[in-house]
Amino acid sequence: MQFTTEVIALFSALAMSSHATDVYSTFLDEQRHRIGKVNFDLGNSSCFSVDSAHFVKFSQFGLFDGAKGPYCLHGFYMAGCPTRHSGEVTLKFPGVVFGGSGYPLLGVAGSKSFRWTLGACPVDTTYPWRFPAS
Which UniProt keywords apply (predicted)? Predict the structure, then answer.
């Protein structure tokens, strides 16, 4: 059986979509209300700030209901994502489900700034559940 270039490209795009392609995070407060209007791309490792974040939800523009990960959320006690020596904490998400009521930010809640990186965290602080409580 032969596949056309278009079919191979489609399968490649679908395979990539289950990872970090277009996976976004939305941060929620203690009452699980959305904070701000910005969704943060997990593939972008730029520093960002979200006040009073206690939960995070994930979304993707596609046909999937989850993404494989792993994803690492770095939280910093100071604004601007300073170096590790100024209080970095991490939380690893081995995989995520889109929607739901959100994952608690265990250990990183209350951080002043954040950064997403793809792959395992430098210190293994694996999220204890694969799926969020609904």
Answer: Signal
Tally the residues of the chain: 134
Residue 84 has a pLDDT of: 59
Confirm whether 102 is domain-assigned.
yes
pLDDT of residue 123: 66
| 53: containing domain | 5-118
Give the list of residues 6+ apart from residue 14 with CB closer than 8 angstroms, or none: 63
pLDDT the model gives residue 88: 80
Locate tokens 């590790």: which residue? 84
- Residues 77-91 as b/e (b if ≥16 CB within 10 A, e otherwise) read eeeebeeeeeebbbb
One-letter amino acid of 77: Y
Q: pLDDT at residue 108 above 70?
A: yes
Give me the number of domains the chain comprises.
1
Q: Which amino acid is at 118?
A: L
In a domain, 125, yes or no: no
In a domain, 11, yes or no: yes
Q: Does residue 126 belong to any structural domain of this protein?
A: no
Angle at 117 between CA 17 and CA 32, to 5 degrees: 80
End-to-end CA distance of the chain: 44
